[in-house]
């Protein structure tokens, strides 16, 4: 169902109406979903050995670039080939992106 109207007013109406339609307690499916999310969080999938000079070095490079430029209007990009996805995951985007 599309929502047509002023964004601020539409969001305010949605937020006001949410408690009326929200379930009082989570369903069994939602409980399982949050359990799965908890498992993913425990894996710490973005952790890497900072002393290793392997493919994870690009993660460190992006982390350092962000640390050195976070207070500037800077855009750090990488190619996102399948072999470089791990590096692209750590890219911090605080501005517009193109896809």
Task: Describe this protein's structure.
This protein has 99 residues and is mainly α. Helix content is 49%, strand content 0%. It folds into two domains: 7-43, no CATH class; 57-89, no CATH class. The chain is built from four helices and no strands. The radius of gyration is 20 Å and the shape is flat. The mean pLDDT is 75.
Task: Note the main attributes of this structure.
99 residues; mainly alpha
Gyration radius (Cα, Å) is: 20 Å
Mean pLDDT over the full residue set: 75
H/E element sequence? HHHH
SS-derived structural category: mainly alpha
Helix content: 40-55%
Distance between the termini: 27 Å
Low-pLDDT segments: none
What is the secondary structure topology, with strand pairs?
Layout (H helix, E strand, L loop, with lengths): L6 H15 L6 H16 L13 H13 L15 H5 L10
Summarize the structure.
The chain has 99 residues and is mainly alpha-helical. The protein folds into two domains: 7-43, no CATH class; 57-89, no CATH class.
């Amino acid at each position: 169902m599309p929502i047509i109207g002023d964004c601020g007013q539409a969001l305010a109406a949605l937020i006001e109406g949410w408690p009326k339609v929200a379930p009082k307690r989570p369903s069994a499916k939602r409980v399982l979903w949050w359990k799965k999310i908890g498992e993913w969080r425990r894996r710490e999938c973005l952790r890497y050995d900072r002393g290793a000079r392997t493919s994870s070095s690009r993660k460190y490079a992006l982390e350092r670039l962000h640390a050195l430029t976070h207070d500037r209007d800077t855009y750090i990009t990488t190619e996102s080939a399948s072999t470089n996805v791990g590096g692209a995951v750590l890219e911090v985007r605080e501005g517009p992106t193109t896809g």
